[in-house]
């Protein structure tokens, strides 16, 4: 299987979660060059969001995760998608992000 990313830099480091923003930027680079990727508008929308530089917005990770999920869904729907390792890594990044949300919501409040 082929990875578009040079040296196949994983989206998910085993020691820490890579942010949804970084994962999104990396996956945009992957799908942008897939000739039969029929969801170019999703790429453009995600890239436009990243260009706004909302990195400090409270909902930034959530919005990036939603854009990443759209691109992952598009890649899964693309017949013959050749960058399967990159797709797998993007899905792992989404799973890690979702797991971090459940961990945060399960943590006891420090205010009480």
Question: Could you characterize the architecture of this molecule?
Answer:
By secondary structure, the chain is mainly α. 58% of the residues lie in helices and 0% in strands. The protein has 4 helices and no strands. The longest helix has 23 residues, at 84-106.
Which features characterize this protein?
globular; 112 residues; mainly alpha; 4 helices
Please outline the helices and strands.
Elements: H1 20-31, H2 40-51, H3 60-77, H4 84-106
Helix pairs in contact: 1-2, 1-3, 1-4, 2-3, 3-4
Low-confidence stretches: 11-15
Largest sheet: none
Could you give the count of β-strands?
Answer: 0
In round numbers, the mean pLDDT is 83
Helical run tally = 4
Q: Tell me the overall shape.
A: globular
> In what range is the share of β-strand residues?
under 5%
Q: What is the helix content?
A: 55-70%
Instruction: Round the Cα radius of gyration to an integer and report it.
Output: 15 Å
Distance between the termini: 51 Å
